[in-house]
Amino acid sequence: MLDRQDSAGLAQVCAAQGPAARHLADKPVMISVDDPDGYLGPSPRLLLHRPGRVPAILKRSLIVKNAGRFLGWMPDDLDAITLVGTVMAIPAKDGAVAGRKPTVTIRTLSIAEAVLRVLIRWPRAGHTLLRLLAARNVKGATSRFLRHFEALSSPCYQDWLRLREDVDRPPPIAGSLAPLVLVSVIGAGEGRTVTRKSLERQTYRQVEFVDLEDLPGGLANRAEQKDLFWLLVPAGVTLSPLALQWMADCLIHHPQAAGVYCDEDQITRKGGPAVPLFKPAWNLPLVQTGWLPMDCVLLRPSCLPNTVDLTNFDANQLVIQAAAAGDILHLPRVLVHRSSPRPVLTPTRPLLQPRSFRPPVTVIIPTRDRADLLSACLDGLLGHTDHGELDIIVIDNDSKEDATRILLDRIEAEGHVRRLPMPGTFNFSRACNLGVDQARHERILLLNNDVEPLERDWLGEMNAELNDPQVGAVGALLLYPDGFVQHAGVTLGAGSIARHSFHFHDPDGGEDHGLLTQRRHVSAVTAACLLTRKSHWLQVGGMDEANLPVAFNDVDYCLKLRRTGLNIIWTPHARLVHRESVSRGRDDTVEKRLRLAGEEKVMFERWADVIDNDPCYNPNCSLSAGDFVLEAAPRDLSARSGRIR
C-alpha cells in the first residue's frame, strides 16, 4: 500500500494495483478501511482505475468515521484501486504524510454471501428478484441485484446529513453586500411559531418579517431593488440555520437569477428517520404538478410581474411567473425540513387533439429479419393506434429470412409502408438519418421493430407534448412483456455514460418517488420510441453515424437538442411494450465490446461535464446503485439551472 498526496494536496492511498487488482475484476468485494487519525477525512472517494477505457476511472465513495466499509462489484477491466481523501494531507519532514496511515483490507465475497447481504438489508428485494426470475427476465434480476449490492455502501440518511452539516459551510457574506431578506410565513397556529424560531436562528441576519396582508405595499415600494430578496415559508416548516446564508450567497453570485430553491426532508412524527427529497434542477412539468415544491424558494421581487396578486397566490404558479424573468436555480443541499407531506397536485397532461386534427407523422422502423416482431409492431401501429396520416418507412438492413421478405413485399404492395434498403453492417444512426432524409412529414417517430402499443392514444399523447414549441423530443413509458419498466427516461452518468431511469422497476412498486406517474423533463430518451421534428433533426445534424453507430446515439441527439435550448420530455401517458434489442442481439462479443468502448469514449469526450452533472438528477444520489440511492460523497453541489451549455 502506498501513501502520498494527489495533485490537489489531498491524502491518497493505493489499496491495490497490478495483478492484485486485476484478480478482483468482475467480482463482489468488501473493502474495509481503518483510519484512526482521520487521514482520509470523513467521506473519501474510491477510484476504480481501468486504463484503456473512457472514463478511465469509475468513482465510488464511503463514509469513514475512524473506520468504514465499502461493498461493490468491481469492473471487469479493473487495474488499480485508490482511496482519495476529502481533507488536505499534512506532510511530514521526510516528505511523506504525517499521522498514522489507514489500513485497507480487501476481501472477495462469494455470490451466496453477496446475495445474503442484499436480502438482509432489503428483505423485499427478494420478492422482486423472484418475480423477475419467474418471468424468465434473468437480465432484469441480475441488474436489480447488482444495483442493490452497489447500494450496500449507501450511508444512513441521518449519518449523511450530520456529516454534510459538519463539513459544508457557506462562504461569509460581508455586511455591506448582504441584501435584505423579507420573510413571509404562510399559515397560522403552532407551526407558525416553530417556523419563526428556525428563522430567528439563521446565521444570515439581514431578515425582516412581513405579513402577507402587508406584503403588496412593502414590495411595491421596493420592487426595483436588486438587493432585496423575498422568502416564502409555510407554517410548520423549519430551515437549517445556514439556509438563508446558502441561498442568499447563491443569488448574490448569480445576479441574473430570479430565485433559488434547495433540497428538503420530511421529519416523521413518531421519531423515525427523516425522508429526504433530492430534487432535480428546474423542471417545469414537475413544478406545475407540485411534485417539485416551490413554497420555500428565495425570490427576487424585481422578477415578479406587477400584476401578480401576492395575497392570493399559489407558490408554484408564482415562481413559474418569476421564471420568465430569469433562471430559478437549484442548490442541491438539504436546508428545509417539513413536518408533514408536501402538497402534490393531480398530474397534468396536454389536451389531446381530435383525430381529424392530429398532425401527420413519418414513422421510421429499422429492422433486420424477425418478421414476427415487425408484423406485431406494424399491426399495433396500423390497427391499435389512434392517429392521423402515417408515412411508415421500414429501413431493411439486409434481411435474409424468407418470412421477412414476404412480409415486406406484401405490406409494401398494400401501400402501408415504404421499404428502404440499407445493406451492410448494422448502423442504427445511419438507418435513422436515411429515414429522416426520405420523410414526407415534419413530425418524425423513431420506433424499434420490437415495440407494441398498450393503449390506442399513445401517439396522440406524444404529439400533444410536441405541440409545445419548447420541446425538441418526446419519450414514452416502455415496459417489458412482464410489466417491469424498460424505459422511463435516461439518467446521465449512471453506469458509465447513461442508463435508463428506474430500469427493471415495478411501476406499481412504490420505489419511484412518484416519478413514474409524472410528466417531466429529462436529459434524454431512448430512440426505441422517440417523437421529434424533422427541422430540429436537420438543425443539429441528426445522429452521428460515423462515431455512434449503435449505442448512445439517441442520448447524443437529445443532448444536442438541449444545447440549443429545447427540452426533452418523458410522458407516462404513452405506454408501450418493448422487447429491447431482441432482433439485434446482445453486445457480448469481443468486436461488439470494442465498438461499445469506442462509443463510450466519444460520448465522454463530447459531453463529460453534462454526464457528470445531469440537471434532471441530483448530485447527492448514486450513479452506480439504484435511482435516488444516497451517495456518501456528493458530486458538484454548485447551484444549477435546468439547462445545459
UniProtKB/TrEMBL annotation:
Gene3D superfamilies assigned to the protein according to its UniProt record, in alphabetical order: Spore Coat Polysaccharide Biosynthesis Protein SpsA, Chain A (3.90.550.10)
Stretches of the chain forming a coiled coil according to its record: none
Source organism, top-level taxon: Bacteria
Stored InterPro entries: Glyco_trans_2-like (IPR001173), Nucleotide-diphossugar_trans (IPR029044)
Entries under CDD domains matching the protein: GT_2_like_c
Glycosyltransferase 2-like domain mapped to chain residues: 362-485
PANTHER family for this protein: RHAMNOSYLTRANSFERASE WBBL
Protein name: Glycosyltransferase
Classification lineage: Bacteria, Pseudomonadati, Pseudomonadota, Alphaproteobacteria, Hyphomicrobiales
